[in-house]
From TrEMBL:
Catalyzes the ATP-dependent phosphorylation of N-acetyl-L-glutamate. The gene is argB_2. Pathway: Amino-acid biosynthesis; L-arginine biosynthesis; N(2)-acetyl-L-ornithine from L-glutamate: step 2/4. NCBIfam families: argB. It is found in: Cytoplasm. Keywords: Amino-acid biosynthesis, Arginine biosynthesis, ATP-binding, Cytoplasm, Kinase, Nucleotide-binding, Transferase. Substrate binds at residues 47-48, 69, 172. The keyword ATP-binding applies. GO terms for cellular component: cytoplasm. This is Acetylglutamate kinase. GO terms for biological process: L-arginine biosynthetic process via ornithine. The record marks 12, 235 as: Transition state stabilizer. Belongs to the acetylglutamate kinase family. ArgB subfamily. Coiled coil: none annotated.
Length: 276
C-alpha cells in the first residue's frame, strides 16, 4: 500500500523572536505538536542577535545591506559558531527535552543546500549598483532527500543557514532566504515566518497598519516606496521564492506570541499572508 505523504509545515524561526528560553520552549511546543495533527514539521532558524553578540565580544564589525550581513571570512567563523553551536544546539536540546526527536543540521549536511556567492545589486540614484557582501551566499540548489528521510522516520529537522558551494567554500545565507528555498523544494503546504512583529505593516512603527493579505506582484512597489525595508526585504523575497518553487502558502506571524502558531490551522488566520 502506498503511504500518503503528510503535508509539510516549514517554520522559519527568527533570532529576534527568541527572547528567552521559556518563550522558545512554548514556541517549539506549539510547532512540534503539529506532528500529532498529521503534519511534518521542519524548523529553519536564524540567530541575528546571537551573531551580533559574539561578533561584539571578539571585536569584529559587521554591517547590514538590505537585510544581509556583509560577512568577511573571519566573521563567517563566528557566524557559524553562533548559528550551529549556540542557537542550533539550544533548539535541538529544547525540542528533545519536550519529547520530540530533533536532528540539527546546516545546509552542508548531506549537501542539502548548495550555495553560490550572492551578487547583490540594487538601484542607487537611478543606476543598478553592485555590492560585494563577502562570504554571503544564495541558495543555488536544494536536495530535499535528507530532510525527507528524517521526516519519514519521525525526526524534526532543525536547520540553520550555512552552506557550501560546489568547491567547498562556506557561505552565510540569510535565514529567510534559506528557509524560502527549502520550503519550495519540500513543497511545504505552509511556509511560516516567525519574527518579532505581527506581520508586514504599511508603517513599520504602527502595529495598527498591519497588512493581512498581499499579492507577490505588489512586493516591488512596496520596496520602492520604502514600506518593505531592512529585515523585511529578505523575508518578502523568501516568501516569493517559496511560492514560486512549490510552497502552497506563505505567511509572516509574530513568534513572540506562541498562540499564533495554533491559529495557523484554525479558522482565523493571523499575520500577513502572501499569495501568488
Ligand atoms: N513594513 C514593515 N513592517 C514590519 N516590520 C518591518 C517593516 N519593515 C522593516 N521591518 C523590520 O523588520 C524586522 C524583522 O526582521 P528581522 O529583524 O530581520 O527579524 P528576524 O530575526 O525575525 O529575521 C522588524 O522588527 C521591523 O523592525
Ligand atoms: C547573510 C545574512 O544576513 N545572514 C544572517 C544569518 C542569520 C539570520 O538570518 O538570522 P535572523 O533570522 O535572526 O535574521 C546573519 O548573519 O545575520
Amino acid at each position: 500500500m502506498i503511504k500518503k505523504k503528510k503535508p509539510v509545515i516549514l517554520f522559519k524561526y527568527g533570532g529576534n523572536a527568541m527572547t528567552d528560553d521559556e518563550l522558545k520552549e512554548q514556541v517549539l511546543e506549539h510547532m512540534c505538536s503539529l506532528t500529532k495533527k498529521g503534519y511534518h514539521v521542519v524548523i529553519v532558524h536564524g540567530g541575528g542577535p546571537f551573531i551580533k553578540d559574539i561578533l561584539g565580544k571578539v571585536g569584529v564589525e559587521s554591517e547590514f545591506i538590505d537585510g544581509h550581513r556583509k560577512t568577511t571570512p573571519e566573521a563567517l567563523k563566528y557566524v557559524e559558531m553562533a548559528l550551529k553551536g549556540e542557537v542550533n544546539g539550544s533548539l535541538v536540546n529544547l525540542v528533545n527535552r519536550i519529547g520530540y526527536k530533533a536532528v540539527g543540521l546546516s545546509g552542508k549536511d548531506g549537501k542539502m543546500a548548495v550555495a553560490t556567492k550572492r551578487l547583490h545589486r540594487k538601484m542607487v540614484d537611478g543606476k543598478w549598483t553592485s555590492f560585494d557582501l563577502g562570504q554571503v551566499g544564495d541558495v543555488e540548489h536544494i536536495n530535499p532527500q535528507l530532510p525527507e528521510y528524517l521526516l519519514n522516520d519521525g525526526y524534526i529537522p532543525v536547520v540553520t543557514c550555512i552552506a557550501s558551494d560546489e568547491d567547498g567554500n562556506d557561505y552565510n545565507i540569510n535565514a529567510d532566504m534559506f528557509a524560502g528555498h527549502l520550503a519550495g523544494a519540500l513543497n511545504a503546504e505552509q511556509y511560516i515566518v516567525l519574527t518579532d512583529v505581527d506581520g508586514l505593516r504599511m508603517d513599520k512603527d504602527k502595529p495598527e497598519t498591519l497588512i493581512d493579505k498581499l499579492h507577490v506582484a505588489e512586493i516591488p512597489s512596496l520596496v520602492e516606496d520604502g514600506v518593505i525595508q531592512g529585515g523585511m526585504l529578505p523575508k518578502m523575497d523568501a516568501c516569493r521564492i517559496a511560492l514560486a518553487d512549490g510552497a502552497g502558502s506563505a505567511r509572516i506571524i509574530n513568534g513572540t506570541q506562541p498562540e499564533q502558531i495554533s491559529d495557523l490551522i484554525g479558522k482565523n488566520p493571523v499575520g500577513t499572508t502572501i499569495i501568488k
